[in-house]
UniProtKB/TrEMBL annotation:
The gene is glnE. GO terms for molecular function: [glutamate-ammonia-ligase] adenylyltransferase activity; [glutamine synthetase]-adenylyl-L-tyrosine phosphorylase activity; ATP binding; ligase activity; magnesium ion binding. Residues 81-325, 599-836 form the Glutamate-ammonia ligase adenylyltransferase repeated domain. Residues 505-1007 are annotated as: Adenylyl transferase. Keywords: ATP-binding, Ligase, Magnesium, Multifunctional enzyme, Nucleotide-binding, Nucleotidyltransferase, Transferase. This is Bifunctional glutamine synthetase adenylyltransferase/adenylyl-removing enzyme. It is an enzyme of class 2 (transferase). Its cofactor is Mg(2+). Pfam families: GlnD_UR_UTase, GlnE. Involved in the regulation of glutamine synthetase GlnA, a key enzyme in the process to assimilate ammonia. When cellular nitrogen levels are high, the C-terminal adenylyl transferase (AT) inactivates GlnA by covalent transfer of an adenylyl group from ATP to specific tyrosine residue of GlnA, thus reducing its activity. Conversely, when nitrogen levels are low, the N-terminal adenylyl removase (AR) activates GlnA by removing the adenylyl group by phosphorolysis, increasing its activity. SUPFAM superfamilies: Nucleotidyltransferase, Nucleotidyltransferase substrate binding subunit/domain. Residues 1-497 are annotated as: Adenylyl removase. It catalyses: [glutamine synthetase]-O(4)-(5'-adenylyl)-L-tyrosine + phosphate = [glutamine synthetase]-L-tyrosine + ADP; [glutamine synthetase]-L-tyrosine + ATP = [glutamine synthetase]-O(4)-(5'-adenylyl)-L-tyrosine + diphosphate. Signal peptide: none annotated.
């Protein structure tokens, strides 16, 4: 028996055509009439809508109110396409048409496809509120018995406005208008509504003052969205012979009335908010000012962002002559704003604040879906375009465009932006604005967030012409555009610059040297002429090296600009490239590993210390490719490598130590980079530096002993050890610290005392000489001044001599200094015996008596009074200042002197470990320890950061604001965070000093 094919149901066919609910669609079509399902043209137009279900619903509701619409749709293909296209994207406009059934007729005939001039829009909305469009100052005429702000008047304005909005949306949804035409008409429509709102306000408050409404933001630039706050500024002038105060009072009432007329909610809703917050002094300033008052404010007090906002100022309503006078006056200031001090820094700071507010105002997912402010969003494009306009518009009037796309085109024509880049940005901007419009059209609500609902994404994708896979294709295109915008945003300033300076081939017009210099200034380079020379040197020629540099530099210039010192970064890059440019792996690494180039740019622009290390060990660039390469190497591995270097150069102490110092230079680079990128904390830095110094001293000691033995032609007649003291002993050295040490020797059995002493002194002197030899490496200076009798005493003593001295002559400060003594290098057995000799001194059985405590306190006070450099601010001196390193360390050391014999955990050379042990033993409050530790860490980090940034050590926070800012950035503060940095340090040290006053100078250490 043959199977009979099952006929597809109507509901199934409708679902296949694109309806989400085929059965419901069938029912709604039946309600339109029996012929509707069979009307191919009507059904085709519905199915072609972005959301067929939404379009059919709105059509069904309209037909109930006005059945004649169906006949009109069947006979007018243009009306059919326009009305159903709008119904498919906008539930809100569909609701408007249903509520006002006659409004669909605005989509008929020629009026539906032509773009009305501004005058026609203004006249239509003025007539809606009963005003005479021909009057010099139109005044609304409310219905008899109704007030100016009555519901009938305001509703009439809203209905007329939305009828025009319906026509704009129809031209937009059917693709018969470009984005620029749509935004311009929306802006003109908003201006007409402002004029009508002003007419309503005049009906309430009267005339008698000149009032101009200045459009700002997207309204001023004629690139308004469907739903946006309309940004305005009000300017007023009294009529001749009128009192200015009274005139401003009336103008303020008119401005408030106009805002009320547009934003008040009625049965027809509201239009949009009128926002005057961009006026001088913002919401705190007067709503209306005279022209002279505006100009005085801008000349004396205006901030950089205000001139950036004025870039888009345009008279839109009210007294247009006064409005144009305002724009003419402020334009001169706008195009000179880039010459203001810190202009670029101010613009960048404003952008960071916006991004910070976005992150704080919602979760990361919401920020990622932000079309306007999110990464790769509209603001990235607008911000870059405006900055370039403001910087170069001073010298190039062709760049003085209000709207983004025309400005971008002008930048491209002028060679400020590459043509391909400008084209990509224009495409992305157009796409993102179209998506933004579709989001807002749906409910006529202000939103910039891409929805996650599949139905919403489907409607957007179909409206953009993606019928096959609307959700997937839209998401892919959106993400691709966002990524491209973010990438081009970083690159936007640079490629035309390189085409001009490096004479790159290309058809685009090249920038003049002056324009290139101005662009570098905009990026934050303080020596743009020097930067031009470096760029030209790096990119000139036809070699592979020059070609790769031309690829790298456009992006790297921006990375240098993001660093504290762009000029130093570019100079360092040129110097390193000169050394390694011909090395095949170097340029390949930078080209293929973006993270390496980015990290290198940041480091070179941050740290002169790192740059100096890299200059003499350029192969260390390879470390930047992996975080694993930045892990601090174990001491044992370093010791093995150093010992091998000495062994390879046996008999040549200078060469052996040079090899060891090269190892130290490489590891200093590794530690400094790990420090700057946040891979290690301050305690880990101190330990890494101390262990590296120990290894270096041991290797140099081995070389020194080898040389002395070779010269004496006899074995060394004494054992020799190096005792670490001070910060080296405490595993707390900074990058610029000397190595505080003491030398101990012990004659071997049978050796003569003098012979052993002479040999020990020879070793000590040779060790110091080898480590002090002139070299390109950071020096490791041996400082033996903490030995008994200081510089007046012998450089080397026997163990017995030390024991005798300490038994007879030791003072409290020496006991305190010995708290940090540990074995650094040499004979470990001798070192342990030395520690056994000094342990009773530094860990006295009964602690220290009151006299010793008083002596220590006197010495501390004397240090604060006498050793602080002249003119230094005590609050900003990290070592001797109040609450600084010395304060915290002396607290720990006093606790150790008093209690370490009874509390073995206190027997440590490390400051923070001693504080933690004191808390565990109940000798220090658990609340005091973190206060002291925070101040100590902060001060230590600052000392290291100063050395890293400047390349030379200092204990004082820099007075120079630029250097201070660079140190702050190295510590992780934003470019404008130097004041926060100093405030944080003052706060931390002030709290620490309070603890010191109580614990060190009081009696808390007795507990």
């Amino acid at each position: 028996m043959t199977a009979v094919p099952r006929m597809e149901s109507t509901a199934g066919r409708l679902a296949r055509l694109g309806f989400a609910d085929g059965a419901r669609a069938e029912r709604l079509l039946d309600e339109l009439g029996p012929e509707a399902v069979g009307d191919y043209d009507l059904l085709e137009a519905i199915v072609a809508a972005a959301d067929p279900d939404l379009a059919l619903t709105s059509l069904n509701r309209l037909a109930e109110r006005d059945p004649s619409v169906l006949g009109a749709l069947r006979g007018d293909a243009g009306l059919r396409e326009r009305l159903l296209a709008v119904f498919g994207v906008s539930a809100a406009l569909g609701e408007h048409v249903v509520r006002h059934p006659e409004s669909w007729k605005v989509l008929q005939g020629e009026q539906a496809v032509r773009r009305p001039p501004q005058e026609e829009l203004c006249a239509d909305l003025l007539l809606a509120v009963g005003a005479d469009p021909e009057a010099a100052e139109p005044v609304a005429v409310p219905p008899p018995g109704a007030g100016a702000f009555s519901t009938p008047t305001l509703s009439a304005l809203r209905v007329a406005y939305r009828n025009h909005l319906l026509r704009v949306a129809a031209r937009d949804a059917t693709g018969s208008a470009t984005l620029g035409e749509v935004t311009a008409e929306l802006s003109d429509l908003a201006a007409a509504a402002l004029e009508a709102g002003l007419a309503v306000a005049r009906a309430e408050h009267g005339t008698g003052v000149r009032l101009a409404v200045i459009g700002m933001g997207k309204c001023g630039a004629r690139e308004l969205n469907y739903i946006s706050d309309v940004d305005v500024i009000f300017v007023a002038e009294p009529r001749e012979g009128e009192d200015e105060t009274e005139a401003l009072r009336l103008a303020t009432k008119l401005a408030q009335g106009m805002m009320r007329a547009c934003s008040t909610a009625t049965a027809e809703g509201s239009l949009w908010e009128v926002d005057a917050a961009l006026r001088p002094e913002g919401r705190s300033g007067p709503l209306v000012r005279t022209l002279a008052s505006h100009l005085t404010y801008y000349r004396r007090w205006a901030k950089t962002w205000e001139f950036q906002a004025l870039l888009k100022a345009r008279p839109v309503a009210g007294d247009m002559e006064l409005g144009q006078a305002y724009v003419d006056e402020v334009n001169e200031m706008v195009w000179e704003a880039a010459g203001r001090e810190n202009f670029v820094e101010d613009v960048q700071a404003m952008r960071r604040r916006v991004e910070s507010h976005l992150r704080e105002g919602g979760n990361g997912t919401a920020a990622e879906r932000q079309l306007k402010l999110g990464p790769g969003g509209l603001r990235d494009i607008e911000f870059a375009v405006q900055l370039l306009q403001l910087v170069h518009g001073r010298h190039d009037p062709l760049l003085r465009r209000r709207a983004t796309l025309p400005a971008l085109a002008a930048l491209s024509r002028g060679g400020y932006v590459g043509r391909d880049d400008a084209r990509a940005l224009a495409e992305a901007y157009t796409f993102l604005r179209q998506v933004e419009h579709l989001l807002q059209l749906h409910r006529l609500r202000r939103t910039h967030v891409v929805p996650e609902d599949t139905a919403d994404l489907r409607r957007i994708g179909r409206a953009l012409g993606m019928p096959i896979d609307p959700v997937g294709e839209f998401t892919t295109r959106w993400r691709r555009h966002a990524m491209e915008v973010r990438r081009l945003h970083e690159k936007l300033f640079y490629r035309p610059l390189l085409q001009a300076v490096a004479r790159l081939p290309g058809e685009e017009a090249r920038l003049s040297t002056a324009a290139a210099k101005a662009r570098l200034e905009a990026l934050g380079y303080t020596d743009p002429e020097g930067a031009l020379r470096h760029i030209a040197t790096l990119t000139s020629g036809v070699s592979r090296r020059a070609a790769i540099q031309r690829t790298l530099l456009p992006v790297m210039l921006g990375w240098f600009a993001d660093a504290p010192d762009p000029d130093a970064g570019l100079l360092g890059f040129r110097q390193v490239s000169d050394k390694l440019g011909a090395t095949p792996w170097y340029l390949r690494l930078l080209r293929d590993e973006t993270a390496v180039a980015s990290r290198m740019a940041r480091l070179l622009g941050t740290s002169r210390y790192v740059t100096g290390l890299l200059m003499h060990a350029p192969e260390a660039v390879a470390m930047l490719g992996s975080d694993a390469e930045l892990e601090v190497r174990p001491k044992a591995a370093l010791a093995t490598e150093a010992a091998a270097a000495v062994s390879r150069h046996e008999g040549d102490a200078e060469t052996a130590v040079a090899a060891v110092r090269a190892l130290r230079r490489r590891e200093l680079f590794r530690t400094a980079v790990a420090d700057l990128v946040g891979r290690v904390d301050i305690e880990q830095v101190g330990q890494a530096l101390a262990e590296l110094n120990d290894v270096t001293i041991q290797a140099a000691l081995d070389a020194a002993i080898g040389k002395v033995v070779l010269e004496r032609r006899a074995p060394l007649p004494t054992r020799f050890t190096v005792i670490a003291m001070g910060r080296l002993g405490g595993f707390e050295p900074s990058y610029g610290s000397d190595a505080d040490v003491m030398f101990v020797h012990e004659p071997v059995e049978g050796a003569a005392e003098k012979e052993a002493a002479d040999a020990a002194h020879a070793v000590a002197n040779e060790l110091r000489r080898l480590l002090a030899l002139p070299a390109t490496d950071p020096p490791l200076l041996i400082d033996p001044d903490l030995r008994p009798e200081g510089r007046q005493g012998p450089l080397v003593r026997t163990l017995a001599s030390y024991a005798a001295y300490y038994a007879r002559w030791s003072s409290p400060w020496e006991s305190q200094a010995l708290l940090r003594a540990r074995v650094s290098a040499g004979d470990p057995g001798l070192g342990e015996r030395f520690l056994a000799v000094i342990d009773p001194l530094r860990y006295p059985e009964d602690g220290i008596d009151d006299a010793a405590v008083r002596e220590i306190r006197r010495l501390k006070a004397r240090m604060e009074a006498e050793r602080l450099p002249r003119g230094a601010d005590p609050a900003l001196h990290t070592k001797l200042g109040r609450g600084g390193l010395s304060d915290v360390e002396w607290v720990a050391q006093l606790l150790q002197l008093r209690h370490a014999h009874a509390c073995p955990a206190l027997r440590t050379t490390r400051t923070l470990a001693a504080l933690r042990a004191a808390v565990a033993a109940g000798l220090l409050s658990a609340a005091d320890e973190p206060v002291l530790a925070e101040a100590w860490r902060f001060a230590s980090r600052i000392r290291d950061a100063i050395m890293l940034v400047r390349g030379r050590a200092s204990d004082s926070i820099p007075v120079d604001l630029r250097e201070r800012g660079m140190v702050a950035q190295a510590l992780g503060y934003p470019p404008d965070g130097s004041e926060d940095f100093v405030d944080d340090y003052r706060r931390a040290t002030r709290r620490a000093r309070q603890v010191v006053e109580r614990v060190f100078y009081g009696d808390d250490t007795r507990r």
